[in-house]
Amino acid sequence: MSVFKYVTAEGALRFLQTWALRITPPDQFNDPFEMRPTIDLSGMNLTEEAPQRVRQNLAARLAQMAAEQGWTAGADEAAPMADALVAFLMHQMTAEDELRFIDTVAQRSPSGGKEALIALRPHFDDLYEKAMGDAHAQLPAFSKLAQAAMHQTLPKHMGVLCFSGSSKHPLMWAHYTDSHKGALLEFDENAPCFNRRRHAEDEFGVLRRVRYADSRPSLNVNGDSDAMVALALTKALEWAYEQEVRLLWPLELADRTVDAGEVKVRLFDVPATALRSITLGCKATETFAADVVRAMAAAGSSSRIAIRRASMDDLSFSLNYRDVA
């Protein structure tokens, strides 16, 4: 089986000279929705998944209330005592630990601290529910912040090699080959360079089909690997004609890095043995065709890799490919 890459004339010659393809960060794609998922925090169970922040807020508030009742502690003891106070009020202590904690409070605040502590318990549910309510109310804002952070961070680490499963799509020729002036590169999808998994569960380094959907992918609070892969392999239905195939690869593992002005271009090695054919567009110039032949000859690959030229069909809106002698 084959996968295809539609390229400009400059892109084709650059590949034939370097035998490498560019790993593109998602923020450089022509689709602004690329890898920009929504962050779903609606199912977050704060009691289980974010207790520390809630407990810390409660500990600070309850410690202040207890201090107003005469309980004092040294600066190095304030935090653990406040946390113990929350654990006591949340019924997260054993009966033995509760008695020990009450005795400790009684020793440190002989002027009614023990009674004040016990009196707090009946009112704790309301206080706890308010704290949890405040935390839930902040989830939408936190979701937007998390989404913005991901959109800024992901392009710094993840790159993509983009291919197509279609070899004769006129829109692909128009959009990616400078209006049929470029070329179509055909690759063997079973070539070793397209199977660079680092371990059995690795989602990087292998060709994956893109899924097309009518809604953006959503990441849940667990951030599981399936969801992460889905965000990198999901595009809008309008792009389905591309029949896109992708290889995800960490930018830091690029085979080569080239400085191109202010941008660093990361390259992924694809040897000549992976290339099956190159098809020149129906509007490709003779100069470009001659450059391709020379580049192939210089690489010693011209005898094995087919060179073709596209032409418009006389009757239909389709393209015909013929071998170049």
Number of helices: 10
- Give the number of domains: 2
What's the SSE pattern? Answer: EHEEHHHHHHEHEEEEHEEEEEHEE
Low-confidence stretches: none
Q: What can you see in these coordinates?
A:
The protein starts with a strand and ends with a strand. With 325 residues, the protein is an alpha+beta fold. Helices cover 40% and strands 23% of the residues. It contains 10 helices and 15 strands. It has a 5-stranded mixed beta sheet with strand order 1-5-13-14-15. The model has no long low-confidence stretch (mean pLDDT 80). The protein has 2 domains: 2-39 and 158-323, no CATH class; 46-139. Helix 10 (286-298) links the parallel strand 13 (275-280) and strand 14. Helix 3 runs antiparallel to helix 6.
Per-chain topology:
Elements: E1 2-7, H1 9-18, E2 20-23, E3 38-40, H2 46-49, H3 51-68, H4 75-89, H5 95-108, H6 113-137, H7 139-153, E4 158-164, H8 170-176, E5 183-188, E6 207-209, E7 211-213, E8 218-220, H9 225-232, E9 234-236, E10 244-250, E11 256-260, E12 263-269, E13 275-280, H10 286-298, E14 306-312, E15 319-323
Parallel strand pairs: 3-8, 7-9, 13-14
Antiparallel strand pairs: 1-5, 2-12, 4-10, 5-13, 6-10, 11-12, 14-15
Helix pairs in contact: 1-10, 3-4, 3-6, 5-6
